[in-house]
Amino acid sequence: MVRERSEALYERACALMPGGVNSPVRAFRGVGGTPVFVRRASGALIEDEDGHSYIDYVASWGPMILGHAHPEVIAAVVDAAAGGTSFGAPTARENVFAERIIAMVPSVEKVRLVNSGTEATLSAIRLARGFTGRPKLLKFEGCYHGHGDSLLVDAGSGVATLGIPGTPGVLPEVARNTITLPFNDEGALEEAFARHGAELAAAIIEPVAGNMGCVPPRPGYLEALRRLCTVHGAVLIFDEVMTGFRVAPGGVQERVGVTPDLTTLGKIVGGGLPLAAYGGRRDIMDHIAPAGPVYQAGTLSGNPLAVAAGLRTLELLGEDPGLYVRLEETSSRLFRGLTEAAVEVGVSVTGHQVGAMFSLYFSDAEVWSFADAKASRTDLYATFFHGMLDRGVYLAPSAFEALFPGAAHTDAHVDRTIAAAREAFGDVLRAASAAG
Ligand SMILES: *Cc1c(COP(=O)(O)O)cnc(C)c1O
Q1: Are strands 45-48 and 38-42 parallel, antiparallel or unpaired?
Q2: Which of 139, 210, 290, 320 lies at a C-alpha separation of 20 to 30 Å from 344?
Q3: Cβ count within 10 A of residue 108
Q4: Is 278 a catalytic residue?
């Protein structure tokens, strides 16, 4: 497939922006080739600058669960914009939105709006340190919590795709206060709390990981983490920026029944506009300024357009009682269909599906940790990715991301995707045998 305009635009972009992009994974470094420049999108489809159309499973990396340019979300944004785009003063709609978030997410008793998932996790960690008076942070390999300094140690997503081991610019003393454990290793958890428990301000985890591909917790793992945090007085933070409103209306915490002290939200909560949030126990949240001493602020926080988009999105998700059942069905039909197609063609894949997210790894062994994910054949993923792209299916340009089926994906989209995959797995089989 020829994408002349994308190629020309990318060449120009590279002279203007580092790597030609405003966020690293967009640059296709993980799969090779030239990024597709998107002109517009609607429902389950995106259209590139050369006029090609693709079934989209990236969904802007998660937010677009209702599909692109949902008419009611667009109407809410247009309506809000006509009344002014930013005031830097409280608005009535923020109350309605906060009420809605608190009603949907079990752990959230009070909430603060911010502008990105990164800002939400940074703020939640500062709050945990301010609340406990302790320095250390526990995190898990392959989880991604945005680009905050202490969070880039052994992180997933773009950090994993580009093979960056931590990153220059992060001070050693910051890294020293970050303890990183393998995901899904309960023994390592017990050991870390025994050693560092008294110094731990917080543990932060993706309760279903989505940034090393989709890796669910083993049974009992989140329960063990919850128990250890309670015993040692550390704040448990669930980073549900990706899973919130996706795997269930109230996120993983609703699905598995484990309640964290603080929750970070992003992506879907902003309905496709720059908005994120953190919230949780009232006694902890009341340490945030101006109620308490831990400072956190934002000129554009609670922006009227973003709140309008987020609120309408959450309303639509809440109003349709069958929606999450349908999302689960679409997701599992696609996951099963792709897995079966791989088996038919003779390609080894493995993976997990949780609600409206799943991923496939080219591997013979099951994936339960970042080490497992990294042991999969990312070179074969790159072949698969390009095979799908050339057949009109847009997947994440990285082996360490999930697919995000949404409400706009119909059975016909799913069938077309599986048919494309059958051919793309053929490409993979040829690449694998060529590689020996
Ligand atoms: C995307 C993501 C973030 C970062 O959010 P940004 O809005 O990109 O800053 C944090 N945590 C998780 C789990 C994410 O998936």
Answers
A1: antiparallel
A2: 210
A3: 28
A4: no
Spell out which residues line ligand 1, taking CB within 6 angstroms.
Answer: 116-118, 121, 144-146, 206, 210-211, 239, 241-242, 266, 276
**277 CA to centre of ligand 1 in angstroms:** 11
pLDDT in tens, 374-417: 999 999 999 999 999 999 999 999 999 999 999 999 999 999 99
320 is catalytic: no
Assign residue 288 a region (left: φ > 0; alpha: ψ between -120 and 50; beta: otherwise).
Answer: beta
* Token reading at 255: 């699905």
Cα separations in angstroms, 46 against 203, 310, 381, 414: 38, 21, 21, 15
The secondary structure of 351-386 as a DSSP string is EEEETTEEEEES-SS---SHHHHHTS-HHHHHHHHH
Residue 120 alpha carbon to ligand 1 centre in Å: 9
Known active-site residue 267 = yes
Query: How far, in Å, from the CA of 158 to the mean position of ligand 1?
Result: 11
Q: Give dist(CA 168, CA 224) in Å, integer.
A: 34
Q: Residue with the nearest Cα to atom 5 of ligand 1?
A: 117
DSSP β-ladder status, 136-140 and 200-205 = parallel
Measure the CA dihedral 70/71/73/79, to 10°.
Answer: 160
Amino acid (one-letter) located at 416: R
CA 249 remoteness from chain centre: 15
Give the residues across from 238 on adjacent strands.
Answer: 205, 263
What tens digit of pLDDT does each residue of 44-84 get? 999 999 999 999 999 999 999 999 999 999 999 999 999 99
- The domains found in the chain, sorted by start residue, are 4-68+325-435 (3.90.1150.10), 71-319 (3.40.640.10)
Given a cut of 80, is residue 368 above it in pLDDT?
Answer: yes
With contact defined as beta carbons under 8 Å apart, do 131 and 106 qualify? no
Burial of 22 (0-12, 13-18, 19+ CB in 10 A): exposed
- Nearest by Cα to 305 from 121, 99, 73: 73
Written as one string, the DSSP assignment of 97-141 is HHHHHHHHSTT-SEEEEESSHHHHHHHHHHHHHHHH---EEEEET
